[in-house]
Amino acid sequence: MFRPTSGLESPRFVGIRTFMRLPHVESVERCDAFIVGVPFDTGATFRVGSRFAPEAIRSISVMIRAYHPYHGFDIFDRINVADAGDLTVKPGYAEPSFEVVTRQLVQMLEQSGGGIPIVLGGDHAVVLPELRAQVAYRKQPVAVVHFDSHPDTWDVYWGEKYTHGTMYRRAIEEGLIDTAHSMQVGLHGTLFDDNDWAQSRELGFATLTLRESLNMGIPETIQAIRERVGDAPVYLSVDIDVLDPAYAPAIRTPTASPHQATPAAQQRQHAPDRRRHRHASGPGRLRRATMTERLASSRGTHVPSGHHTR
Ligand SMILES: [Mn+2]
């Protein structure tokens, strides 16, 4: 079995960077799952630079230890996982990049006999070549579970069809997604208009906004996802902008999330404001936090009470 090098064997800052200090392999033949980077950011519509993300993820991943306290096992005792390095891309050229990424991934799926690629992006447009590769290999559409602040089902940006905001629509048009078993979770942020989320539902996705998900609770959200997916083969995709930029400030498309305010700030949102009670003229006045306070709270910033307005 492949094993990560333990921090007890050698310090974590020693050695060539691979994901979790796993062995690097040229062939994924023996892999049940394999890490592979796609350093591509030509699909991004705001900040670029995520071509350096696989490298950055690998660098910090050396801190991850193999034993999972919640699940109670070491994943590497059970499956063979290695780091297969990065796929090549053509920076500046989206569609030619998708072609080479698809081709390389299909080869890896064949070589590993259907091993699971754990792909480090790259901007989110890399979903499209990944789905093309999975469907080319499996000869059937796959379910998608997609965590994101955005639906990524817009048609075009500036008349262009291949961006990180349009690839789920392209994938559905290409027949790659089993939408009846697919779900988008975590939608939040400001919108162009009220069609932004509706368009995903019209295309067949189930959706859970971040607010709906947090109101339901995490176990209930997991249950809803499981029910939706059923036994379908599933492709899991996480856009890190599902998190408030407080947690990932360098993100391509920072999308503020008042719902992810700190627990203390959430309590403040729902608790009576004692200061206001003291000064309020009417009885029983409750006040919910202003948007300014909620946004500031999510960054751990204190907004002086004098700034509050009704
Ligand atoms: Mn997004």
Would you write up a description of this structure?
This protein has 310 residues and is α/β, with parallel strands linked by helices. The protein has one domain (19-272, 285-309): Arginase, Chain A (3-Layer(aba) Sandwich). Helices cover 31% and strands 13% of the residues. It is built from ten helices and nine strands. The longest helix has 18 residues, at 94-111. The protein is globular, with a radius of gyration of 22 Å. The model is unreliable at 273-310 (pLDDT under 50). The structure holds manganese (II) ion. Manganese (II) ion is lined by residues 124, 148-150, 239, 241, 253.
Topology:
Blueprint: E1 33-38, H1 53-61, E2 67-68, E3 73-74, E4 81-86, H2 94-111, E5 116-121, H3 127-138, E6 143-147, H4 167-173, E7 183-187, H5 195-203, E8 206-209, H6 210-216, H7 218-229, E9 234-238, H8 263-270, H9 274-279, H10 291-298
Parallel strand pairs: 1-4, 1-5, 6-7, 6-9, 7-8
Antiparallel strand pairs: 2-3
Helix pairs in contact: 2-3, 3-4
The structure holds manganese (II) ion (MN).
Relevant terms:
310 residues; alpha/beta; Arginase, Chain A; four-stranded parallel β-sheet; binds manganese (II) ion
Task: Write a short abstract of this structure.
With 310 residues, the chain is an alpha/beta fold. The chain has ten helices and nine strands.
Span of the ends, CA to CA? 62 Å
C-alpha geometry: globular
Q: How many β-strand stretches?
A: 9
Question: Could you name the ranges where pLDDT drops below 50 across 5 or more consecutive residues?
Answer: 273-310
Find the CATH topology.
Arginase, Chain A
CATH homologous superfamily identity: Ureohydrolase domain
Compressed to H and E, one letter per element, the order equals: EHEEEHEHEHEHEHHEHHH
* Proportion in helices: 25-40%
Gyration radius from CA atoms, angstroms: 22 Å
Give the averaged pLDDT, no decimals: 88
**Name of the level-1 CATH class:** Alpha Beta
Q: Give the CATH architecture.
A: 3-Layer(aba) Sandwich
| Discrete helix count | 10
**Overall number of structural domains:** 1
Strand content: 5-15%
Spatial sequence of strands, sheet with the most strands: 8-7-6-9
Q: Which structural class best describes the helix and strand composition?
A: alpha/beta
Instruction: Catalogue the ligands.
Output: manganese (II) ion
Described by strand count, sense and barrel closure, the largest sheet is:
4 strands, parallel
